[in-house]
Amino acid sequence: MVQDTRDITMPTIDEVIKKSLNPFDNSAARNFWEEQDLPPTVESIHQKQLTQIKSVLAEVIQDHQTRTIILYGDVGSGKTHFLGQLKQNLNDQAFFVYIEPFSQSDHIWRHILRNAVDSLVNAPAGQTESQLILWLKSCLSTIRKGLKSDQQRLVDTIKSFFGKTDAVRDRQLFIDILKKTIGTTGIYNAHEFFGVLYDLTNPDLYSLACEWLKGDDLDEESLKKLKVKQSIDDEDKARGILGNFSKISAKTQPIVLCFDQLDSIARLSDGSIDIQALFSVNSTIYNGNWKGFLIIISIRTDTWNKNYKRVQPADLDRASIRIPLKRITLEEAEALLATRLYPLYNQAKPQPVSPIYPLTQQILEKKFPSRKASPRKALDLGRFIFQDYKKSLFSDLQPIHPKRLTHEDPVPKPKPPEQIDQAEFQLLWQQEYKTSQEKITKISLLAAIDLMRMLEQALTALQVQEVKPKLLSGRYAGYSLSYLQPGKRERVGVVWTEEPNMTSFFNMMNACQKVIQQNLCQTLYLIRHGGVGKATLAGNQIYRQIFTETNHLHIKPTLSSVHDLATYNSLVKAVEANELEIAGKTISLKELEALTCDSQILHKCTLLQNLGIVASSDKGRTNSDDKNDLQPVKEFLFNLVVTQSYMGVPTLVQRAKTQFQSVQELDIHKLIQQLCQEQKTQIIDPKAKLQDQLICLVNKN
Description:
This protein is α/β, with parallel strands linked by helices and about 700 residues long.
C-alpha cells in the first residue's frame, strides 16, 4: 500500500500566507461585460434583488412589454458585480448589452447603437456563436413555428437557412420572409435592414454587416457589398435601427440594456450630469411602444438623490421600478471574506479553525458595530488585516541597507506609503492596459467622439492649459478640440476622424479649412490612421493644401497609443464613480492626475509625443515591440514586490506569466535576478528550493 504523503508535505497556513499575494487586492471598477471571470460570489448577497429582476424579466418574456429598472446603491455596494452576476444567472434567458457612459448628449442614440452591437457580437458564456447570431436564429425559429402548413417552402427555407447555397436567391427570399412575418410597419428602412441581417450569416460579410449596424461611416465599395445606400450617420437613423432590434426582439428573447457608471456621462453647463438625456431616450422607447427590452439604469444613491429632480416627472414615471442594493449582514460579510481566503486554506494543513483567519468575528463586530457593511468595506478590512498579519510573520527581522547585503542578512521593512501608492497605481495601469489591448483590436472600433474625449482627458491630466472641446462647428464639432501649446501661447487644434467614407472626409477637410481661414488655431493636427483617398478626390486635394508643406501636420496614431488613452479613460470613469482605490484609499480625480504625472506613464504614448505634449524618448511604444519589450515585465515584478512586501518567488513568477502570457518563464527568472543585482529586491533564502524561496524589497533609506 502506497502511503499518502500529502499531509506531510503540505505547508502550514502561515507558511502559505508568507508566500501568497493578498487575496483582497482590488482593481479598477470595470463594466460587468468585461468581467468574464467573476470573483467568488456569496449566493445570499443581494439574492432578493436578483429574484426581483428575474421576476421583471419573466414578465418581459411573457408579454414583450419593455420595462425599466432603477438599480441604486451606495459606493461599494456591489452594483457592477451584481450586474455581472445577473448576466451570469440569466445568460440563457436574455441577451445582455452594456452601454458605456455617453460623452455627448447629441450623439446618444448613435452611442447606444454602437455599444449595443459591440456587446451583441460577443459570445455568451458556454456558447461559440455571438449573441447577434443567436438572437437572429432565435427569431427565425419563432417565425418557423408560426408558419402554416401550406407555407412549407418558407419552413424549409428557414430550416436550411444557415446552410444556404444560392446566395442571391436566398437573400431575397429571406427578406421576403421577414417582411411577411414581421411586417414593414414600424421597421425603419426594412428592405436594407433585413438584407444586412441576412449578410450576418455570410462569413465574408459578417464583419462588414456588424460595422454598418453599429453606425460606422462605410465607404462606397462596402455599402455596395451590403446592397445599402448609406450608413447610419445621424441620430434619427440610429434610433430607427434600435427600434428595429426591438421589433425583432418581440419574436425572440429580450435584450437587457444596462447603463452603468452614470457619473461619467455628458455634463451640462453647470457641471451636473445630463441625466435627462438618458431618461428622454427611455421615454422615446416607451412612447414608441418598443418591445422586448429590459432597461437597467445602475446609479449611485448619492448621484440619484442629487439629480433625479432634474428629470421631467413624466419621464420618471416610466421608470417606476426601483431596486436598492443595501448593505450586507455581518454573516454575509464573513462569507464574502471566506470565499477570497479559501484558495489559500486549501493549500495548508492543518486548515485554520476559522474560515476567515487571520481575521476574527471580533474584528468584524468591532469594525461594523451595526452588523451591516458594504461589500467593499468588508473587503477593504480583509485587505488591511491580511497585509498587517503577513508583515507580523516577519516581525523578528530587522531592516537592511544595500551596502551590507549578504545571504544571511535579515529582511528590510516595507517602503514608505508614497512608493506603495505609485507601485499599486502602475500595477493597476498594466492590468487595465491589458484589458484595453484585448478589447480594442483596431482603432476603428471606437467612435471618433470617444477617441477625442479620451485625448481631452489625457491632456488635462498632463496639465495642458485651456483644453477646449469642439474646435470645429456643426456636425463634426465632437471630433475636435484645441489647447495652448505647452511653453507657448499659440493655440493648437486637433481633429480626429477614422471614417472610411470619402464624402465625410471631404466635409471634414472643408471644416478644417474654415478653422484655418478664421485663424482659430495657429497649428492644426489631423489624427487619422486610415487613408486619405485618391489624389483625384476633392477631399484629398483639400487635405494636401492644408497638410503639405505647411506647419499643419497629419499624425497616424498607433494602436498602442489608443490603448494608453483608453486605459486612462477607464481609470477616470472609475474615479468619477468613486470606485477606484489605491492602497486601500478611494482616490479623487486630482489624485489620479497626480499619480499619472508623477509616474510619467503617459509619456510612453507616441501620439502625445507626436503632438509635442511630452518629450519623445525611447519610452515610446510601437505596435511591433510590445511583445518583445521586457521592461514592462520588470516594472511589474518590482511593483508587485513593493505592494506585497514579501512573497514567494514562484508566486511572483506565476503572476507575471498570467499578466504577460507571451513571456517565457526563463526570462522572468532573469529579470528577478536583475532586480536583485541592482539591489532593488532580495531573495531571503536563495539556498532554499525554488518553491520555498521568498523575495522582498531592499530598503535604501
